[in-house]
Design goal:
receptor, 2 domains, 325 residues, disordered N terminus, 44% helix, D-Maltodextrin-Binding Protein, domain 2, alpha/beta, three-stranded antiparallel β-sheet
Length: 325
Amino acid sequence: MKKRSLSAIAITAALLLSACGNVLTGDVGAADTWPSRNIQIIVPFGAGGDTDFNARAYAGYLEEDLGTTVTVVNIEGNGGATGTAEAARAAADGYTALFFHAALLVNEVSGASDIGIDDFEYVATAASSPGDIIAVRSDSGFTDLPSLIEYSTQHPGELKVAADVGATTHVIALQLQQAGANVNIVSSGGSSDRTAALVGGHVDVIINPYGTIADYLDNGDFTALANVRPERAEGFSDIPTATEQGVPQINWTNHYFLALPAGTPQEIVDAFADAMEKVNQREDYRTDIFGAYRQEPVFGRTDQGLADLQRTRETVIQFEDEFRG
């Protein structure tokens, strides 16, 4: 009798240890039934910006395809590092995802975070910005990028450029300095904060996604000096690129991606990617993103997305000393 009890205890203990091991690795035997409860998508910036918009543009349509509630949660702070850390610590079960972009690399290179893409399973590239805009108040007198750079060399340190320090706009501001602009980079938070700073005259230059300043461009309050992408955007083709104005140092493309905590079963990663690709092909999704941000649908699976990130990392790493200085 005693032997049978000990054997039963041993078997039970082994089963419990096996179950614990599966939970830790994310292999909980639930891939076949995923999703069976609500999904949370963490955006590491505040509501109302470009990253938040793109996450929410997917969320509603994902609910239709996956048959469950998909909630976008904004966890901002430290250039995106705070929300990224929260997502990386989540259970690897497919119910918490990160929606982010290359600021993940900037956080890591700058020392703001020790979390990188290796702490996640890359699901897919979900969208691509048609280009951030270097903009000024229209009463500044600047009409193009070369005139701003020339003025800054004649009035060193006078102009203030707003950036989210440790994030992608910080890289673009450093590229502006690399191009010869003698400007001060001022930490001014996210896109809505930077817009308010320019409206209030607290800074002279901002670098923002088109959609966040479109109304100010349309009503004449702001003037767009350059698109930071290497080619003009179809949705606002009247805005020239920095490259065509003779400033090739300013060259930045922002890809948005969705990732799951490392160890998430591949079946869940693939199922999430399949659902996102279906959303990306919807005409109503296309209408949504073009109307708000003049974006066109972009989608890429893991290999393509990681290759894009690696190329971006090569750009970011050039400024490691400036980030940490």
